[in-house]
Each structure stands twice: as structure tokens, then as C-alpha cells.
## 1
Amino acid sequence: MAERGSFLSSTAIVLKVLLAVMFLFSAATKFVSIETFELYIFSFNVLSLGISSILARLAIASELLLGVWLLSGRGHRWACVVTSLLLLFFSIFLACVLLIGRSDSCNCFGELLPFTPVQSLLKNAVLLMVVLLVWKWGDARWRSPWWLAVPLSLVPAALLVVLGLMGKASMRVVDAELLAVLFAVVAVMSLLLSFRRLHQWWLYWLIALAPVVTLFILVPPNGWFRLHEEESFDREQFYTSLSDCIDGERQVVAFFSAGCTYCLHTAQMISGVQQRNHLDTASFLYVFPDQQISKVDTFYSAARSPHYRQVSIPTHDWIAIVQGRFPVVAFVDHDTIQQVFSYGAVGEKEIVRFLK
């Protein structure tokens, strides 16, 4: 019986560590495609874009914190309870998603593993059973030593970077750099929690707040800490190329490249803002390079966006206007450009305030 109990206890510890690594990996995959994740939350037209952006970052931070907590071995029972409650919350959310007829990816693992709501529900059911096993058979006295906790906390980020280098995951160089900074913070959190004599309450609060603060600094929500970049926009070429398309009313003019991921994100955001706030579709104008006109329908489909007023102009003129940087969104008021926004600098409040 003692051997059986020891085997079950050891198995529970291994399962607990695997759960921790899974939550950290889930957070990492969401982080490198955070725009898609926040737009998924916004796509339900219940919350504003600003609130959706904040919730997306809090969700990632909660998974990071839970992963580090499970990995540390501290507060065994409470860690299992919180994990169960989080899985139940996500399961209820997924059930509601199914009830309204949505079947698109729920972004549980970002864009890397596009799980449907049904697949995610089954995954959560399995994870809940694992948590119950860990809760029942896990040794509450077990603590992860630093030489185990720190390397394991870095495994999810390293794995994701390797997948990116192999072409299995979509990731820019800047995404890998930001991911490295984020998980350096996670490694420090794991190191601190591995100290057995850590009892200062303020240090626990500092550890809990660390992933939240880091996320908001590394990838601030739309419109936070960003400056308008009007100097990279050719206003004279804009008036020359689009004077016939501006009807004198206030318009949001967006310059999109049909093959650009960030253009897709911006188009999704604009579509959600327009529908959520019941804005006049005639107030939006999309400008594409003429060489991409055959790809425009595919662009709208990928962005899950209705067709707005659009125009195509010679590619060299399009590039001259945006100065080679896109997407670009311009607010035009009675033939006068009021503001120009680069990627991520414009949000729901700015668009609604301008058009209303």
C-alpha cells in the first residue's frame, strides 16, 4: 500500500508540473497572437475594444500566474481549487459560444492550435479530471526546487520559438524578443517562489502583479502609449490620388494591403467598431493597391468583415502615400485630413468620437 501511495503521489506531482507547463504554453501562444485574441473577445459585440484588450491581457496574465503557482508547489489545495474554477469558467463561456452558434477557433492556444469550442470543452473536461487526481493524490508538502522550476518555466517560450523557426508557428522577430522578456519575468517569479522561507506578503503581491504590469508595458492596448505618426504620410499624394473619392463628409480612410496580417487585424477591429456602434457604412473607405484587386474578396473573408466602400489606386501611389508603412488609418473631415494613425494607435473611442 505504501508503494502504491508513493507511486500515485509521484504521478500526481508529474501531472501537476505538466499542468503548469501547459498553462504557461497556452499563455505564450496567446501572447504572440494577442491582437487576434483580443479581437476574438471583441467579436461578440458585448464589450468595447478597450475592455476587450484589457481582458485579453488579464487572461494571459492569469494563465502565467497559475502556471508559476502550480509549478512552485505552494498552496496545493488552493492551487487546485483555483485551477478548477478557471477551467469551469472557460467551459461555461465555451458552452455559451456554442449556444449562439459560433464554431470558430476559441484561441485557447492562440493561432498555433485552432481548437473549436467543442474540442476545447473536451480538453477542459480532461484537464478537470487531471486536477481532481492532483488534488486527491498530490503531496501538499512538495516544493519545486529552483533548478527545476526555472528551466521548466522557460520551456514553453523556448518551444514556441523553435516552432516559429521551423515555420510551424507564425511569429515575428519582435514577437520572439517580447516573449523572451515576458518569460524572463516568469523565470524570476518561479525562482522567488522556490525559496522555502518566502513569507513576506508584499513579495507575494509583487509576484502576482509582475505578469500584469509586464504585459501592459510590452504590448499596451490600442491607443495606449503610442504617438500618431503623421510624418510618415504623404498628404499631398493623398489629395492627388483620392480627391474624387472624398465626398465632403467625415470618413475613416484605411490603407490596407490584402496580404498583410496587421491589416487584417485592423480591418477586423474597424468592422467590430462599426457594427457595435451602428455607424454608417458609408463613413468608411478602404484603399488597396491596384495590383491586389483580385485578392480583396479573400481579404474581407479572412477579416470576417462586410464589404465597405473601396477604391484601388496605382501601387506606386499607394506606397508613396503610406511611405511604405501599413496599415494606416486617416480621419478625413470635409476634404481635410484631421489625424493619421499607424498600426495599433487607433481604437474604438477615437473612431466613434470622430464619426459621431
Note: The chain has 13 helices and five strands.
## 2
Amino acid sequence: MESNRVPNNQMALKGVVLVLALIAAGAFVLARGLDDDRDSSEVATQPTSEAPAEAEQSPDPVETPPGDGTAEAAPTPAPEATEQSSAEPAEPSQPPALPPDEQLTCRDPSTISVLVANGTDVTGAAGRLSSELNAANYVTEPPRNASPQTGSAFYYRAGYEVDAQCVARLLGEAEKPLWPMPDPPPGGLTLEALGNAFVLILIGPDSLAQRPG
């Protein structure tokens, strides 16, 4: 009977050893798995890289020097100044002189008022010429003094060009300049001084100033 117990005890012992070995192996595997999980967790939580450095400031823009191939905007040229503004009134043109033998249709001298103004230092020139026109039945305004002139000229109000030519031809001065009446009148005269005159004779230092009285 004792011989049969020994083998049974040995088998029981081997079984216990085997169970212990399995338990130890399982514990080892379990511990290894826990270590792997801890390592992977540390790896996951550990930052992969340092915090990004502060962004570098972008450099200030640098002006592109000329000649880099880009075309610069050409400045707009200033408009050229015109020779004369269109708003400025044009100087009236002198009518062409009539041939001395051309017949003129003159109004009745008694309906034509003439003013003679002296633009010279010849005393009494305007008065003498006014008396000469009165003798030809023209109506004359009181003679006036005018600013110094370089030559004699005849001026007429609108519609009295032919009458001014008639007066000039009567005096033998048809070659003298003939102009429309400007506003204000020439020679420093005023409209008040011009009065009702349709024709103005502005005496300069020439034959009109030297006419006998």
C-alpha cells in the first residue's frame, strides 16, 4: 500500500509545480503587458516636439528699385496753355477803306451828332474842328480833352459806320482809321462825356490837329 502512495504524492507535487509555473508565467505576461501599456501611455503623453518658436516678424516691405523690369506709371502731362482764352472778346476789325470815288448814302447832317476830343497838346484843336462841322450842318457835342494819342481816328456807334465815313470824307481824312465804338469809349472818355454823339473824332498829333480854324 505504501508503494502506491509515493507515486501519487509525486504526481500531486508535479501538478502543484506545474500550476505554480503557469501562475508565474501568467503573472510575467501580465506584468509585461502592463509595462507596455505604461510605456505607450508615456510616449503618447510626451510632447513630440517643443512648443513652436514665436513666429518671426515678417520684414518690412522693401521698395523695389527702378529698373527691375516693372514699368512705372508715367505722369500725366499738364495741358498746354492756350494762346488766348475763347472767353476774351476779340478786338474788332477795322472795316476796309472805301474808294474815294464811291458814292455814300449819308444821313442828313442835322440828325447826326458828333463829338470831337483833343488828344494832343495843341490848344483849341477840338473846338476848331467842331466849328468846321457845325458849318457843314452837323450837330456837335461840347468839345472834350482826351488822353494823349499817337494818331487820329474815327469811331462810330452801331448803325452809323457810313455816317462816320461821310464825316471823314467831308474833312478830307478818309484814310484815317475807322473803328466801332468800344465800351468804355476810347481816350479816357466816359459814356456821359460821349453824350448823344453817334460819331467820335479823336484827334492825334497829325493833320487833324493842325487844321486852321
Note: The longest helix spans residues 2-45.
## 3
Amino acid sequence: MKKLVLAISTIACFVTTACAQTDAAVCGSVPQEQVSVQNVVIPKLPQEAYFAGERVPLEYFDVRESLQREMTIINYWHGSLSYIVQLSGRYKDLICKILKEEGVPEDFFYLCVAESSLQPVTSPANAKGYWQFLSGTAKDFGLEVSAQVDERYNWEKSTRAACKYFKKAYEKYGNWTLAAASYNVGMANIDSRIGYQSIDYYYDMQLPIETARYVYRAIAFKTIMNNLSAYGFNITEDDMYKPIEYKVVEVKGSVANWSEFARSHNTNFKMIKMFNEWIRSNHLNNPNGKTYKVWVPTQR
């Protein structure tokens, strides 16, 4: 009898433990000793915000909520945002210098951040480069796109091409915010929506979800990246990537092998490629004798 009682007790204990574990799994509860302490807060909105000198109407609830959505996503995008901030130490001045030369507000730098995270990426729609041009649009704005050369990955040329677009859109719409939005969805789409909504104010327009979030994303990047410590990012000047010193070598003919070209300039193909992502092949035919400016780093 004692053995039977002991066996029943053991089974009951096993069943109770199993049920407790099952309930915990079903309910999503975690043993107390495994709980980690988090401090998740909704990032505060700025008291006022501007994009390209144009005021963001934060008095509207939908505008506040739209901006806060993007700020919350970006604020908890810890590793990626930290890397973007580091990259901005190397490329922000370069981009802003071109924007200024082209007469485009420097806030469009944050549109580049929103587009590509300052990296040579390809989108699901096959838009490529730092400003995410589609092939056809890139060619329309003077960029070469081929198997050997893709200037969507050229920092200077792609930024100047983007500026051409922004200025054309600004001339059409009369404000930088809608010009920026049109970069995401195209001027034809914006024109159509202006036609049937009888509105040409970005913050009042009904737009495709991606475009509706687009300018807010740039504003969110601007807000957080200019107030890093206020949003919990303890990134110092020493953490920022520094601009790399380089010399410009003009190539007017063909290049049989870019690796050999690199060695002849006391570097390697990795370094040449890093600073000239527009090089898309291991050689360059250049049948038209076009002049290409190759950035050759002079430090490592």
C-alpha cells in the first residue's frame, strides 16, 4: 500500500509540474528568474519640427501619431541606427556639400538615410544605390547604368541626379515636402492625387502607405540623429567613422583589370571597390572614351 501511495504521489507531482509548465507555455509566462528588465518607453516628440524649412503641423493628431510611429521604430532599431550614425560621420558632409551646391536644403540628407541607410543597397523593387534610383529614372537623370558601370552607386553623381529630381519637383509643386514625397511615389502619382483630392499639402493628402510614412521617416531620422543622447544613444565623436583621405584618378580609356589598376596605385581592389561602388565588373571597356573619376584612398 505504501508503495502504491508513493507511486500515486509521484505521478500526481509529475502531472502537476507538467500542467504548470504547459500553462506557462500557453499563457506566455516566464519563470521570474528568467525575466530581464527592460525600459521601453515611447520616445517624446519634439515641441516643433521642420523639414527643409517647412513647418510640420504637430497640432494635428494624425501628424503627431505618424511621426511618433517612425520615431519609435527608429529609436529601437539600435544596432542599425548606431551604424548609420557612424557612417554619417564619413558621408554627411560630402552629401550636404553637394546639396548646398545644388540649391537643395540639407535636410534631404535624411531622405538619403531613409532611402538606403547610407549603404549601397538594392530594394525589392530593384531600386539601387544610395538614393535608390530605378534603372529608367536613373538614366532619365543622366546616370550611366550598365553591366560595368552603375552610377547609382556613385556618391557624387547619384546625389547630383537626386538634386535634379528634387529641384524639378519643387518647381512643379512649390514646396520641398511634397517634392520629397514625390521622390517615393513619382510625380505622376502625386499629380493624380492632387487632381481628385484638390489638395497639394503633404500632411493633408491621402497617399499610398509607403509614401504616407516616407517624409515622416526622414523627419524622425533628423530628430533622433540630432539629439542622440536625449533618445538614449551614447555615441561619441570618437565612435564616428572619419572621412577617408583619397586622391582622384581620372580614367579616360579602358581598364583591363581593376585589381591591377589598384596595385599600380598602391592599394587593392577591396579599397577601390569600397570607395567606388559604381564599378560593377572586374574590367572597363569604355568604348566612348568617357572620363571616370576614381577615388583612390591614400590611407588605410
Note: Strands lie at 50-51, 54-55, 246-251, 292-297.
